[in-house]
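Translate sequence into structure tokens.
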Amino acid sequence: MKLDEQQQSVCHWFQNLRDRICSRFEAIEQEAGSDACFTFVPWQRQSEEIEEDGGGGVRSLMNGRVFEKVGVNISTVRGCFSADFARKIPGTERNPHFFATGISLVAHMANPHVPNIHMNCRFLRTSKSWFGGGIDLNPSTPYEQDTSDFHHHLKEMCNRHNPDYYPRFSQWAEEYFDIPHRHIKRGVGGIFYDYLDKDFESDFAFTRDVGEAFLDIFPKLVARRQDILPNQEDFKRLNIYRGRYAEFNLLYDRGTIFGLKTGGNIEAILMSLPPQAVWK
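Result follows.
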């Protein structure tokens, strides 16, 4: 797939971020006495229903002692939206063609005291172009200290770019990560942003810092909680929470819907689902 300079720079940075995340997570496993490592499975985009398909991605998955299941996926695709889906995407009024590249991460932790987490960053182009993404923390056993430190870190990062970002994007996360049929939230929030199109350089710089913020704060939270001994009630609570997480991702998550509507790789799309869950 031939890419222009902006597309190349974003793709290369997402790949580099993926490599650094995988390396850091493997190091956490090694420090815990595990030899777990990521497997990398490339895929090519294929769909008979969408014209001018192209691109693909790499699905990266690890099952370890600390990370029961963690996936770090990257993709770079182009194609043509279906008429129905195009109406929901900016810049497709006259031309339904698109380019999209991104990184998506979901970590389901083995110890219920260690918070689960989700992070993604993406760049899309139709007749318009924009960045989107965010980070949200999903503990089954919430700790006020972890939640406070997590939000403080994100606020400091946002403030380096725009003092309005954290209030806007944390509120957006509060509204977005909602499970309306359960009348509960998914996790303890974070930031969520989309359609960020002020200018390429500043928006890309902010998106890079979202990735850097993740790499900075999450390993600290893992180290803080991974040696706490869980009991049966902790695991019961974890698996019930995972069921709620699965419901959100299958019913409401934008990334899941986008992947399904654009001929993405099914295993990569459903990477976010937990290794096991229960429903009452």
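Note: The first helix runs from residue 5 to 31.
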